[in-house]
Structure to design on (292 residues):
């Protein structure tokens, strides 16, 4: 994601307000963030965490500061694949990645304006719009949190990643609690995208497969390759953050509006780092239900 000049949180006014305005965050968003006044007497917070998630995040030492979001309405360009050839459509891959990155960067800028140390429970969605077949809105939403003294059991002075930005995570509140208690911390959401055109079968091949059990190697290799490209790009982002690993990986497939032979493979997860050498995982408590 876009690296910011400042590594410390500031209010959503003054120089910081100017910075996030340059990133495309609207004035109404900056006014909303300024009204939250996190940490000040009489201030409120907003959050899309469930009650259980909110309480677990608080228990592990993080205070919600406010709901943050980023949006990008993007016109996805046009690229055609050859009828009989499987290939990546790099113009579309770049568009889908860049649009998501814009949304994530604006969400991070809002968190930065609140002085947050991270964003938890992030949702990254794509919505195709009715006012254009090639127009989609990319939305990133999460709850900005501030680490209190002693968060995570103490001993951690900086919860931000190596780019000086608040960490981002799509883990649930329960998984975030478990991660911190076990001695790990999120660095950021990492992702990779690949839009791939899968070649059509020739008529002779279709006719020859009628009534037979046979692997369609052409389709297998195309889908296999596309997934591997998405995964490798996600891993490259984690390496840039100096992560130990990636947890909660999801590998999604979307055809969007491109038809049956063009699809996007999207890999996303949370890059993590160790907080200490020992990782104590609490023994689960067995609960016996008395319901019939």
């Amino acid at each position: 994601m876009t690296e910011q000049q400042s590594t410390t949180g500031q209010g959503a006014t003054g120089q910081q307000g100017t910075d996030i305005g340059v990133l495309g965050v609207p004035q109404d968003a900056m006014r909303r963030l300024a009204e939250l006044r996190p940490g000040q007497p009489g201030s409120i917070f907003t959050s899309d965490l469930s009650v259980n998630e909110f309480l677990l995040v608080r228990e592990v030492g993080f205070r919600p500061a406010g709901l943050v979001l980023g949006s990008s309405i993007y016109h996805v360009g046009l690229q055609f694949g050859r009828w009989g050839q499987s290939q990546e459509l790099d113009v579309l891959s770049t568009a889908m990645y860049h649009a998501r990155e814009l949304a994530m960067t604006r969400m991070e800028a809002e968190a930065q304006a609140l002085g947050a140390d991270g964003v938890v429970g992030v949702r990254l969605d794509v919505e195709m719009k009715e006012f254009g077949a090639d127009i989609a809105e990319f939305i990133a939403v999460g709850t900005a949190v501030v680490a209190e003294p002693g968060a995570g059991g103490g001993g951690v002075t900086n919860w931000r990643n190596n780019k000086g930005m608040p960490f981002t995570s799509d883990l649930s509140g329960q998984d975030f609690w478990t991660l911190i208690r076990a001695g790990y911390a999120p660095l950021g959401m990492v992702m990779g995208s690949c839009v791939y055109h899968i070649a059509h079968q020739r008529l002779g091949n279709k006719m020859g497969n009628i009534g037979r059990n046979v692997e369609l190697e052409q389709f297998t290799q195309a889908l296999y390759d596309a997934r591997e490209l998405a995964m490798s790009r996600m891993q490259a982002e984690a390496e840039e953050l100096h992560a130990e690993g990636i947890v909660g990986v999801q590998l999604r497939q979307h055809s969007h509006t491109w038809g049956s032979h063009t699809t996007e493979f999207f890999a996303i997860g949370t890059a993590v780092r160790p907080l200490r050498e020992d990782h104590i995982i609490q023994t689960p408590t067995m609960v016996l239900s008395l319901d019939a």
About this structure: The first helix runs from residue 14 to 22. Residues 90 and 195 are 7 Å apart (CA to CA). The chain has a mean pLDDT of 83.
